[in-house]
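Lecture 7 notes: from sequence to structure.
We start with the chain below.
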Amino acid sequence: MELNHILSTHRLKAAVVASVLLFPAAQSVLADEVVEQIELGLELYQEQEYGAAITELEFAIEDMRKMMSGLIAQTFPDAPEGWTAHEATSGGAGGGAAAMFGVGGTSLERAYQQDDGDGQMTASMMLDSPLIQSMGAMFNNPAMIAAQPNMERVRLGREAAVVKWEPERSRAEVTLLLDGRIMMQVKGENLESQDVAVDLMRDWDLAAVREQSAR
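Predicted C-alpha cells for the same chain:
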C-alpha cells in the first residue's frame, strides 16, 4: 500500500471522526469504516504483516471510542430553566490529540450560558484517564476534604460529590467520581450560589452514563 494512499485514507477517517459528535448520522458511516479497518487488519494479520495489522486495528479502536463518545454526549443534562446549553464536544485537557493517542482517555464537555445574566457553567466528563486515579484518594478521605477551604461532600442519591464553593468569586465546582473510572465535573462562574451547579450534576443521567461507557 503506497504511502500517499495511506495518508489520504487516514485523513478521510479523521474528517469522519471529527463530525461524529455534531452529526449523529455520521455514526453509521464511521461504523462502516470500523468494519473495513477490522477486516483489513485481519487480512494483514493472515498475511503476517503484523505491524500494518496493528495500525489498522488501532485506528478501528480509536474510531469505536469516538462512536462511544457520541453516545455518552447524549447523557449530558439539559439546560436548567433560564439557561441555554450548547452541543457537547470533545474536551480540552485530556481530549483532542491526547485522547486520539490513548494518553488522556475520553474527554467530553458541554457549556451552559445564563440567558439573562453572566452565569456560565461547563459540565465535563473524563473516562479511563490516569488522572482519575489521583482523585480517588481525596474522595475516599473525609479528613482531606474537611481540610480544604470551602469544600464539602454532598449526597446525590446513592452517590456522593465533592463541592467547592468560593462565594467571594461566585465560583462553584462539583466533582463526582463514578465507579472509580469516570470523573464528572460541573464548574460555574458568576453564580448566585452553588445550588445551580449541584442541581445540574444531580440532573445528569448516571444510569445512562454507566450504560454507554460500560466495558
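Points to note: The domain at 83-212 is CATH 3.40.1000 (Protein Transport Mog1p; Chain A). The radius of gyration is 20 Å.
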